[in-house]
Amino acid sequence: MDQKNQFLSAPTAARAFGFFVDGEWKDGAEHFERASPGHGTPVTRTVRCTVDDLNAAVAAARRAFEDRRWAGLSGAARGSVLLRVAEILRRRRDEIAYWEALENGKPISQARGEIDHCIACFEVGAGAARMLHGDSFNSLGDDLFGMVLREPIGVVGLITPWNFPFLILCERVPFILASGCTMVVKPSEVTAATTLLLAEVLAEAGLPAGVYNVITGSGRTIGQALSEHPDVDMLSFTGSTAVGRSCVHAAADSNFKKLGLELGGKNPIIVFADSDLEDAADGAAFGISFNTGQCCVSSSRLIVERSVAAEFERLLVEKMKKIRVGDPLDERTQVGAITTEAQNATILDYIAQGKAAGATLLTGGEAIDLGRGQYIAPTLFSGVSRDMAIARDEIFGPVLCSMHFDTVEEAIQLANDTVYGLAASVWTKNIDKALTVSRRVRAGRFWVNTIMAGGPEMPLGGFKQSGWGREAGMYGVEEYTQVKSVHVEIGKRSHWIA
Ligand code: NAD
C-alpha cells in the first residue's frame, strides 16, 4: 500500500503522546483527549503537564544553552542537522499531514502542501545558520576597531495556536535553531500532536537533547507560566491579540523578556475595476476560504471599486458556491471542518450579527450538516458598512465582507481603517495604483495580483496591533539574536594618567 492511501480513515482509537523534555519522553497524571472536528471521534491523547514539568523543561533548555552543546557548533554543523530534518520530514510528510488534518480539520491535500512549506523552512533555516553574521566598523580611526556580534538570545519560549499547528511551528523552529538558541514549546492544547512528532524528527536528525522541549497543557496554566517565567529570555507568541496583550504584561512583570508577537488580522483585498476580475474573484474566494478562514492572513475585507462591484460579487458568488466543503480526509475536499466547537459558535454568531445589522447575504451564511463534525459554508456579505462588527472584528472563519470605493484614496483609507496590520492584497493592472496602494496600506505582508504567496525566504509579521517582530528568512533568525558591540584598541594606549 502506498503511503498516501494508508491513512485515509480516522483512527479507531486515540493515539497517546507523552511530552518531551531533555531528550526523553515522559507521561503525566492527567490527560487531554482530542476529537477530530471533522469526524467527532477521539484521535489523540496528550498530557496535561504541570508547572513543575514546565520548570524542568526550562531548566533543561537553560543547561543545553549554557553548556554550548548547540550554540557552540559552527553554523555549518547546525545547518546540516536542519537539512537532515528536511529529509526526514520529506519521508514522513503524509503521516504528519494526517495527524494535522485529524486534529485541526483541514483538508488532507492542504495539510500535505503545508508540510512541503515546512520542509522549505528547514532548508532556508539551514542556509541562514551558515549566513548569520554580524558587522564590523573600520571607521573608528586607526587605533580602534569595532565588531558587532550577533549572539543567540538564549532560552526561547514558543507558544503556538491551533490553526496551523505545524506550519507556524516550522516557520519559527528552524530559525530559532539557526541562531543557536534552545527552546520550550507550548502548542495549543487541541492540536499538539505534530509538535510532538517534530521532537522525534529533530532527535533522529541529531539535535542534542535539551535543545527542543515540548510541554503540553492549557494556555491558562502552562502558557501563562511560560510567559511569566524568569529564566526564559524571549517569548515568541502566535495567537490572539488578547492573549498577546497578556504576554506583554507577563513579560513586563517578570524579567522583561524579549517578545515576538504574531497576532490577529482583518486583512483587506482591494480590487480595482482594471484588474482581471476572474483572477481577482478566484483570489478572493481562496483568500477567505483557505483553512476555512481560520487564517491570520485571511483576506476578510473585500474592498472593490464601485463601478464593477455588482459584476465582481456575482463572479465571486459563482466561485464560492463551487468550493468543495467536506471530510478533511477526502482528497477532493477544499474546505474542511471548523477546528473547535467554540470557534464554530463564534463564526455562526458573527453571521447572525451581520444579518441583524442589515448586511446583504449573497451566499453561504449557514452551517453544513455532513452527519458528523462541524462545517460552515463560505459566506459573502455585501452592503457592509465600516462600523458593523463583521467589518471590524477578526471573525476567523469563512466570512467575507464586501465594501465599495470610488477613488484610490478612498480604497487606501478603507484598507487602513482597522486596528490590525497583518496582510493586504491589491488587484490591478495599473502599476501606479499597485505601487501606491502597496506603499500606503499599513500591513506586514502585501500581495499584488496574488494572495498568500511566498516562501520562508521572506519575513512575516504585522504592523499595528497585529504584532511585534518578524519571523522567517534572515530577518527571522536575527530576531532570536542580540547584538553585542566589541571595541578593540590597537597599539599603545594614550594614557589618562601622565
Ligand atoms: P489563542 O490566543 O487563544 O491561543 C494561542 C496559544 O496561546 C495557545 O497555545 C493557547 O493555549 C495559549 N494561551 C492561551 N491563553 C494563554 C495565556 N494566558 N498565556 C499564554 N498563553 C496562552 O489563539 P488561538 O485561538 O489558538 O488562535 C487564533 C488566533 O491566533 C487568531 O486571533 C489569529 O489571528 C491568531 N493567529 C495569528 C497568526 C499570525 O501569524 N499573526 C497566526 C495564526 C493565528
UniProtKB/TrEMBL annotation:
SUPFAM superfamilies: ALDH-like. Keywords: Metal-binding, NADP, Oxidation, Oxidoreductase, Potassium. PANTHER family: ALDEHYDE DEHYDROGENASE-RELATED. It comes from the Bacteria. One of its GO terms (molecular function) is oxidoreductase activity, acting on the aldehyde or oxo group of donors, NAD or NADP as acceptor. The active site is at E262. This is Aldehyde dehydrogenase family protein. Belongs to the aldehyde dehydrogenase family. Residues 27-486 form the Aldehyde dehydrogenase domain. Pfam families: Aldedh. InterPro entries: Ald_DH/histidinol_DH (IPR016161), Ald_DH_C (IPR016163), Ald_DH_CS_GLU (IPR029510), Ald_DH_N (IPR016162), Aldehyde_DH_dom (IPR015590).
